Amino acid sequence: MPAINTLNFQIFLDEFSKAYSASFNLVVLDNGRFHKAQQLSIPEKIGLVFFPPYAPELNPTERLWRDMTDRVAQSNPTSLDELSNIVMAIIEQYSTEDIRSLTSYAYFIHAVNGQFS
After folding, report:
1. Which pTM was predicted?
2. By C-alpha distance, which of 60, 57, 89 is closest to 74?
3. pLDDT digit string (tens) for 3-23?
């Protein structure tokens, strides 16, 4: 999406709801303002779960971002276009197993599998 805002988040929710209309889906989010905007209309088969404030260690995505920024730091881009190309090349290198190993916190896997204890 071209911007991180309420309108684009609404579009994401609507499209996600259409793509997975046969099931109820939990979307795990940080506490960005646009995630909690009063103007949002949360689709019927979506539930929003928010991380506690100031708890990046609970967010599986943070480890992926850290890995990516570590890889970007090894380069020395001279333009925004070059930086964009470097980031895209890094993203394309990630396998499903790479992403799983970076983001699969035990608490998260247990919750997804319905093992809430």
Report:
1. 0.58
2. 89
3. 889 999 999 999 999 999 999
What pLDDT is recorded for position 54? 77
Q: Do 27 and 50 contact (CB within 8 A), yes or no?
A: no
List, in sequence order, every residue forming a beta bridge with 25; answer none if it has no partner: 46
Instruction: Check: CB of residue 93 under 8 Å from CB of residue 87.
Output: no
In the block, which residue shows the tokens 């929710």? 13
Strand partners for 28: 49
Q: What is the 3-state secondary structure (H, E, C) of 81-93?
A: HHHHHHHHHHHHH
| C-alpha 16, offset from chain centre | 13
More confident residue, 57 or 98: 98
C-alpha 100/C-alpha 75 separation (Å) is: 25
Q: What are phi and psi of 79, to 5 degrees?
A: -155, 165
Residue among 89, 95, 111 nearest 28 (CA): 111
